[in-house]
Task: inverse folding
């Protein structure tokens, strides 16, 4: 592991190197990922399945209206539109505010495993939950700006890429305010296309893994419980994605700002204690 650590912190890695390292760390952290999947992913999956069910019902009504098989009054149409917008915002809020706990916990576990530190799954996710106030504060700004960006497709894609590391800036880079968005932009700005390609590769891997899971779950009846379990299990895929993105962040951060920028408070205290001695 020491050799991998030196590799991550010594030079800019190619995407295939990041994937290989991420897969190894993901395998070694599989118990942490599984714990996060059950403790955090399962409740979120129930929420997501409930909201997605409501969204699908409203889309069916909208399809019937567009096919002229169902007629709504102007007030009913406005109410339907408002409910669809509300549920879509709720979906985004769950992703931004609650899934962040899973992301930060797995990201911290990835860094600690890479550096050979001893830790437990509970420590990783307790620390992640302690950062929730920061996540909410930054996430509100992120949601507002991103939703404004979605009015035009190109700005939304650009912002989605330049801010893809903001949670890792909070989790691993010590950023505790909206400057996490700005710092993510600094890390991505000069390598936008490379980062975009990396995210496309991760999306393709996630799609393939989740497609296999979906085929397996087609053997079961389509009901609320099965949908919840399927959504929960996809957090295993998300665990690998987070591991790979954490390696990308650590590699970029150490290359641009040095390893000192990645020191956590307890590491700083240990270093100060050693100096005092």
Result:
């Amino acid at each position: 592991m020491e050799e991998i650590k030196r590799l991550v912190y010594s030079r800019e890695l190619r995407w295939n190197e990041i994937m290989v390292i991420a897969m190894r760390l993901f395998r070694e952290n599989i118990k942490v990922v599984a714990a996060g999947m059950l403790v955090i992913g399962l409740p979120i999956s129930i929420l997501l399945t409930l909201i997605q069910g409501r969204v699908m019902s409203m889309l069916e009504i909208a399809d019937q209206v567009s096919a002229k098989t169902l007629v709504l009054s102007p007030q009913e149409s406005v109410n339907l539109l408002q409910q669809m917008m509300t549920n879509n915002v709720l979906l985004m809020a769950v992703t931004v505010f609650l899934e962040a706990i899973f992301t930060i916990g797995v990201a911290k576990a990835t860094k600690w495993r890479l550096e050979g530190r001893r830790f437990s799954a509970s420590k990783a996710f307790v620390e992640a939950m302690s950062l929730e106030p920061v996540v909410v504060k930054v996430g509100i700004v992120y949601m507002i700006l991103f939703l404004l960006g979605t009015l035009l497709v190109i700005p939304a894609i650009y912002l989605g890429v330049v801010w893809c590391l903001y949670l890792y800036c909070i989790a691993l880079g010590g950023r505790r305010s909206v400057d996490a968005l700005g710092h993510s932009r600094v890390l991505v700005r000069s390598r936008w296309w490379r980062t975009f390609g990396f995210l496309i590769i991760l999306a393709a891997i996630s799609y393939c893994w989740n497609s296999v899971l979906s085929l397996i779950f087609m053997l079961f009846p389509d009901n609320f419980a099965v949908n919840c379990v399927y959504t929960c299990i996809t957090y295993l895929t998300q665990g690998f994605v987070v591991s790979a993105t954490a390696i990308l962040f650590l590699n970029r951060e150490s290359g641009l700002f040095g390893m000192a920028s990645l020191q956590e408070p307890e590491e700083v205290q240990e270093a100060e204690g050693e100096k005092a001695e």
